[in-house]
Specification:
single chain; about 550 residues; alpha+beta; Helix Hairpins; D-amino Acid Aminotransferase, Chain A, domain 1; OB fold (Dihydrolipoamide Acetyltransferase, E2P); seven-stranded antiparallel β-sheet; five-stranded mixed β-sheet; globular
């Protein structure tokens, strides 16, 4: 590896930042090999030479990257994330799917066309050359302070050469390749992450910054808000290039005019196949700063930029049948299975219909001719039903347990439910959630293992998971298990018995209570389980994010279980 570095150095002269990034990567690889794998990539002398070179470059440029081995990283563990109000609202962008409308919007002005990244927007603040604060977008008005986690991002500079106050915005993302790598290490299909954005959101908002570091969160700047005393020549492009000079990675952009805009849109469209950073469209921004700002904004949108969404690729096909899939809440979801079609470069044959109200709105019946597309070029959806034969054959029995089904209407939405409280799907899915990573995090209790334990009578309720030692002999003798697997499982169970209330509340799996709502509930009741368990419907609905429907579902009774 040392020879490779030397060869590259002789072949061409790298700019200092590129060399620093290369040194950071190589030195970290060497440290990992030495400390975790008991092998050496370099001699001590070679390592020291590279380390000294990196230190000298950091001193020369004034830039220190977050993963630099010259920094002693002390990971921070928090009880909760602090909230902070943004100086000015972070607005969404107006959108169009028409290239012609995009060209009309640009007019005779010059613009910058870039990826619309699909991650989590972050605001960074630097003072005296050091990162002092990082805040999520939140609801646009109030965000969460994630400074400790931002310092653990893979590519954010901890120190920069500029010593004035710098405020910038960018997107925290997890690349598709890292997303696939992380998911490949999860054996339980039900525990895998749904998409890079969800994984990124959870990683950025961790209470333990070490977990953030392990997820390889990447940051790309897309807007400079403030840099005191710097002349940017009234150009957004100049701002982007200046940010690069300070050590930031900036979203890929292309300079455009009305004449070359269609060509550039087409280029980005082709690049979506190879772009490792999740994206759900493009952003067009006026290069002229003063002109863009003079246009002002509405209550929802600024007028200096606009988002572009590609026209969805639509295909016609035939509905083969409706598959009914039972969930842990008793909800039975309809899934449309149709003749396979090619969409956005992949073969698609299934799309969720979500509920009976949508089915009835589409008048969806077997044999109907339907059109399908991928929302944001990712999620298959039914666009239209061209023949509308009507909804028939709604199952009267649960596809898992054979129990009676019933149609319930909540907030004008009709859905199908299994009424059997002992439905296997309810048990398995509920227990799977309870042991998942964001809940009790019991490694070794996959969905398949839970199914075996339930069928053998080891688990009837949540508490039984903490008494699996009663069945040691039977578990050790099971196929796929042994003494070592059993010991690892018991260690994970013991660790899970010392958890926090947020994880328990989330793990119980009340419909509508995700991780964010679980945190709100715990905070509202002062992390007092008894208070929460005996709360009235009025007290529950008073909590931000908990509506009357959840209170009517006897949430307090569910917690008492």
């Amino acid at each position: 590896m040392k020879n490779l570095l030397e060869e590259n150095r002789e072949e061409f002269i790298m700019d200092k930042q590129a060399r620093m990034k290369e040194l950071v990567e190589v030195l970290n690889q060497a440290s990992k090999a030495y400390y975790q794998e008991d092998r050496e990539l370099f001699s001590n002398k070679e390592y020291d030479e590279l380390y000294d070179e990196l230190q000298a470059l950091e001193a020369e440029t004034g830039i220190v990257m977050s993963q630099s081995p010259t920094q002693n990283v002390g990971y921070e563990v928090l009880s909760e994330l602090e909230k902070e109000t943004h100086e000015s609202p972070m607005l969404s962008l107006d959108k169009t799917k028409s290239p012609e409308a995009l060209r009309d919007w640009l007019g005779e002005k010059e613009g910058l066309l870039s990826w619309k990244m699909d991650g989590l927007t972050i605001v960074l603040t630097y003072e005296n050359g050091s990162l002092i604060k990082a805040v999520t977008r939140g609801n646009g008005e109030i965000g969460e302070v994630i400074t400790a986690n931002a310092r653990a991002f893979s590519n954010i500079p901890l120190s920069i050469a500029y010593k004035g106050q710098l405020v910038l915005r960018g997107e925290a993302v997890i690349t598709y390749s890292d997303f696939e790598k992380i998911n490949s290490q999860i054996g339980d299909a039900g525990a895998k992450y749904k998409n890079p954005r969800n994984l990124c959101s959870g990683s950025v908002r961790q209470l333990n910054s070490q977990i953030t570091a392990e997820r390889n969160v990447h940051f790309e700047a897309f807007a400079l808000v403030r840099a005191e005393g710097v002349d940017f020549k009234n150009s957004r492009k100049c701002q982007f290039e200046w940010l690069k000079s300070q050590g930031f990675e900036v979203v890929h952009y292309e300079e455009v005019t009305a004449e070359n805009l269609p060509e550039k849109i087409e280029w980005f469209g082709k690049e979506t196949e190879h772009n490792d950073i999740p994206s759900d469209g493009l952003v067009l921004l006026y290069d002229d700063i003063a002109y863009g700002e003079s246009l002002g904004r509405t209550a929802k949108f600024p007028h200096n930029a606009i988002a572009f969404k590609w026209q969805d690729e639509v295909r016609e096909t035939t509905l083969s049948y409706i598959e009914w899939s039972a969930s842990r809440t008793g909800l039975i979801n309809p899934v449309a299975v149709f003749e396979p079609v090619e969409l956005e470069g992949t073969t698609v044959s299934r799309a969720s219909v979500h509920n009976l109200s949508i089915m009835e709105g589409l008048e969806l019946g077997v044999g109907d001719t339907i059109t399908v597309y991928k929302a944001n070029m990712i999620i298959p959806q039914i666009e239209e039903n061209l023949t509308r034969s009507g909804v028939k054959d709604i199952p009267e029995e649960c596809p898992v347990c054979g129990g009676r089904t019933e149609i319930r209407q909540i907030n004008d939405v009709k859905s199908l439910y299994c009424t059997n409280p002992d439905c296997q799907a309810k048990k398995i899915k509920s227990f799977t959630l309870f042991v998942s990573r964001d809940a009790l995090n019991i490694d070794g209790l996959s969905e398949a293992t839970l199914e075996k334990f339930i069928s053998m009578g080891f688990i009837h309720e949540y508490a039984d998971m903490f008494h699996l030692d009663r069945h040691k002999e039977a578990i050790v003798s099971m196929e796929g298990f042994g003494e070592k697997s059993y010991e690892n499982l018991m260690a994970a169970v013991k660790k899970a018995s010392h958890t926090n209330l947020v994880r328990v509340v989330y793990g119980i799996g009340v419909a509508g209570i995700g991780l964010a709502n679980a945190k709100m509930l715990c905070r509202a009741f002062g992390y007092d389980f008894d208070k929460m368990r005996h709360a009235t419907a009025e007290e529950l609905t008073a909590v931000d994010g908990i509506g009357a429907a959840l209170a009517d579902a006897r949430i307090a009774d569910l917690y008492s279980e």
